[in-house]
Amino acid sequence: MRALLMTMSLLCLPVQAAGLDFKMITLQHRFPQDLLPAVQQIIGPEGSVSAIDHHLVVRATPAQMEAVEALVERLDTAQRNVQITVRHDDHVTQSGNEVGADGSVRYGDIEVGVNRVPERREGLRFNFDESQATTRRSGEQFLTVLDGERAFIRVGQSVPFTQQWVVLTAQYLNVQQTTEFHDITTGFAVRPRTIGNEVEVEITPRIARLDAFGFIDFEELSTTVRVSRGQWLDIGGIMQSSDQVSREILSRSQFGEEKINRLQIKVD
User: Fold this and answer.
1) Could you give the maximum distance between any two Cα atoms of the chain, in Å?
2) Suppose 209 and one of 6, 149, 214, 244 were both cysteines; which one would form an S-S bond, judging by CB atoms 3.0 to 4.6 Å apart?
3) Which residues are registered as beta bridge partners of 264?
């Protein structure tokens, strides 16, 4: 038992090994898994970091270790609820063709005409008139989520899980090839992390079972951006140019109707 205590005491002290410091950092408020990605970005491939219970076990250069300790001090704070304001701005364009015919047809001594004009030759003339109508729908939604947790922002209401979605899902998620969703809702899973007066927002495309449990997050397509608290973030613009799955979520075209979703959020 005494040997074990001595070993734990040594773990709490920085030791020099191959030019790297070794330290076990105890967290008070956050789970170590939540901080692993941020710490890994600091130490890079030359060091290492792992999680044990409520501790981060870090091996890094002295300069990197100082940066890790400063980051942990800033992030290891009590979690609180944050409010996400979602602004939807949908543009729906409906287009169609009108077909008309006029002229005359003669069969023997019988002539049948529609809007006959004397100087026009016998025969039929077809008119194609294209029409287009655009409507705009706007609205706001308010979500409350624990800082560091994900909230689902729904974009599509009811979308069939067609072969197109099957192909996209298999392309990015091999483990989900057997998914048998029929009616799905589409959108983005948003994870806000407050860092002082700034907010780091992770945006992930998601398809979910309509009115039921079960969803698929396209983790490989996640995008992370940082903005000031209370600043509007154009999710639609960011994800529209990000990947094919996000473009399918934001823009749907069916039966002559094209829908473009403009999506913004604000974290307070």
Assistant:
1) 119
2) 214
3) 87, 234
The CA–CA distances, whole Å, from 65 to 19, 26, 44, 55 equal 12, 14, 12, 15
Whole-number Cα distances in Å, 22 to 66, 72, 94: 12, 15, 63
pLDDT tens digits, residue range 228-263? 999 999 999 999 999 999 998 887 644 445 556 689
DSSP-assigned beta bridge partners for residue 227: 199
The rounded distance, in Å, linking the Cα atoms of 37 and 76 is: 14
- CA dihedral in degrees (71, 77, 81, 83; nearest 10)? -30
The structure's pTM equals 0.59
Q: What is the pLDDT of residues 141-162, one digit of tens each?
A: 899 998 888 999 998 877 888 8
- Helices 32-43, 62-75: crossing angle, 10 deg rounding: 150
Q: Is the dihedral of CA 247, 248, 249, 254 positive or negative?
A: positive
